[in-house]
Amino acid sequence: MVVVIVLIQVKAGNTSAALAEIEKVPDMQHVHMVTGPYDIIAYADIPEKAGFRKLVERIHDAPGVERTETCMAI
């Protein structure tokens, strides 16, 4: 299992819609609206590193997502 933490910036006014869509992404464990330089932080457990790209693509498909920064737990 690979733990992935994704820091997400969203266009103003789209945070709630983006959060609702990101919560539907397979393997997503927790999604939080936060303050600071990022708008949303998401935590996922993916079965293997090969699923990483698909996870990030699904997050970028959410409404208003402008930028992500992704970290894998080691």
Structure, described:
The protein is an alpha+beta fold and 74 residues long. The chain has one domain: Alpha-Beta Plaits (2-Layer Sandwich). The chain is built from two helices and four strands. It has helices at 15-22, 52-60, and strands at residues 2-10, 28-33, 40-46, 65-72. The chain has a four-stranded antiparallel sheet with strand order 2-3-1-4, with helices on one face. A hairpin with a 6-residue loop joins strand 2 (28-33) and strand 3 (40-46). The protein is globular and about 35 Å long.
State the main characteristics:
74 residues, 4-stranded antiparallel β-sheet, alpha+beta
- Side by side, the strands of the main sheet go 2-3-1-4
Percent helix range? 10-25%
CATH class: Alpha Beta
Radius of gyration: 11 Å
- SSE order, as H and E? EHEEHE
* Strand coverage percent: 35-45%
Distance between the termini: 11 Å
Count of helix runs: 2
List the helices and strands and how they pair.
Blueprint: E1 2-10, H1 15-22, E2 28-33, E3 40-46, H2 52-60, E4 65-72
Antiparallel strand pairs: 1-3, 1-4, 2-3
Brief sketch in words of this structure:
The chain has 2 helices and 4 strands; from the N terminus they run βαββαβ. With 74 residues, it is of the alpha+beta class. Strands 2-3-1-4 form a 4-stranded antiparallel beta sheet, covered by helices on one side.
